[in-house]
Specification:
The protein has a single domain (about 5-95), classed as Beta-lactamase Inhibitory Protein, Chain:B, domain 1, CATH 3.30.1450.10. It has 3 helices and 4 strands. It has helices at about 5-30, 35-40, 45-55, and strands at about 60-65, 65-75, 80-85, 90-95. The longest helix is centred in the N-terminal third of the chain and has 23 residues, at about 5-30. The mean pLDDT is about 85.
Length: about 100
Amino acid sequence: MTRAPDPDYIAAMRSLVTAIALTLLLAACSRVTQENYSKIQDGMSEQEVIGLLGPATESGGMSLLGVSGGSSTWAAKDAAITVRFVNGKVVGKSFRKEPAK
């Protein structure tokens, strides 16, 4: 005989899953900070930057005569970090903080 799931248990599990999802979402956004921006150094690999900031919000690039270049941007609610790469290495960066509304 199969017993029906307890409604209180189901509600508790839904709350737990919602809390975990919200925590992960907030943690992902919090990587776009002045502190993490200052950790990005010229010569770092693109993979090192991704390890620090997570996946980029947007990326673009091109390759010409054996030289590849591009830029990636990590955006959060109130700030953005843009990193420029040549041959997979950091050559420049910028940090933009949006004014409070």
